[in-house]
Amino acid sequence: MEKIVEQGLLYDFYGDLLTEHQRAVYEDAVYNDMSLSELADAYEVSRQGIHDLLKRCDKILLGYEEKLHLVEKFTKIKGLLHDMKETEQLSEVHRIADEILEEL
């Protein structure tokens, strides 16, 4: 998965578990595509401080995913629903629906 998409999904699922400051910086970096220099100026800290904060946020979000697997389940279910939408065989729809129910 492309890194920016992965970061966005992880943040969507677990971002509320970060501190307010971490959320603000992470949103600016990921969603607003601000550079380390821009972030450092905006938050009046060093570029290294911003870099460390972003790495720490990535580690925190990945840690939650390793424990809870919500993004993994979401991605799998989304793929299965796409497969279900594409199929015309009722038996295949039932099989995919059963697989989705097992995920839940």
Would you kindly provide a brief summary of this structure?
By secondary structure, this protein is mainly alpha-helical.
- How does the major sheet shape up? none
Residues in helices, as a percent range: over 70%
- SSE topology string: HHHHHH
Average pLDDT, rounded to a whole number, is 90
Structural class based on helices, strands and sheet pairing: mainly alpha
Distance between the termini: 22 Å
Low-confidence stretches: none
Gyration radius, rounded: 18 Å
Shape descriptor: elongated
Put simply, the count of helices is 6
How much β-strand is present in the residues?
A: under 5%
Kindly state the number of beta strands. Answer: 0
Structural description of this entry:
The chain contains six helices and no strands. The chain has helices spanning 3-14, 20-30, 36-43, 47-68, 70-86, 90-103. Helix 1 (3-14) crosses helix 4, helix 2 packs across helix 4 (47-68) and helix 3 crosses helix 4 (47-68).
Q: Keywords, please?
A:
104 residues, mainly alpha
Task: Please write out the topology.
Blueprint: H1 3-14, H2 20-30, H3 36-43, H4 47-68, H5 70-86, H6 90-103
Helix pairs in contact: 1-4, 2-4, 3-4, 5-6
